[in-house]
Amino acid sequence: MPIKHILALATFAFASTVTSVAFAHAKLQSSDPQAGSTLGDAPKQVRLKFNEALEPAFSKIKVMGPQNNEIPVTATTVDKADPTVMTAPLPPLSSGEYHIQWSTMTHDGHKAKGEVTFKVK
Q1: Count of CB atoms within 10 A of residue 114's CB?
Q2: Which of 21, 37, 58, 103 has a 20 to 30 A CA-CA distance from 7?
Q3: pTM for this entry
Q4: From CA 110, how far away is CA 105, in angstroms rounded?
């Protein structure tokens, strides 16, 4: 293979890597309560861990309850020691299925949102 084809291929491969990194979005890595879990005791807070630092002013957790009613969440906080972690305290929860709906923005301005579902026995 001629050297100019090898260089062109190497340049394309490098550009593809840089582009994919530059347009990355925050991805949820873990949640507590864990997605799809059934708990014996209701959790006292929601904890979400992401793959990159979050922008506190644009990070929010909303919780929907068994009858699709919104559960009051007093405050969503991005951890100052670990800005990849977002938490929110929960009031006492009854039995049923809950949906944690989250939205955030990373430091590079990319927005992301998602949902985690869990059940309380």
Answers
A1: 15
A2: 21
A3: 0.79
A4: 5
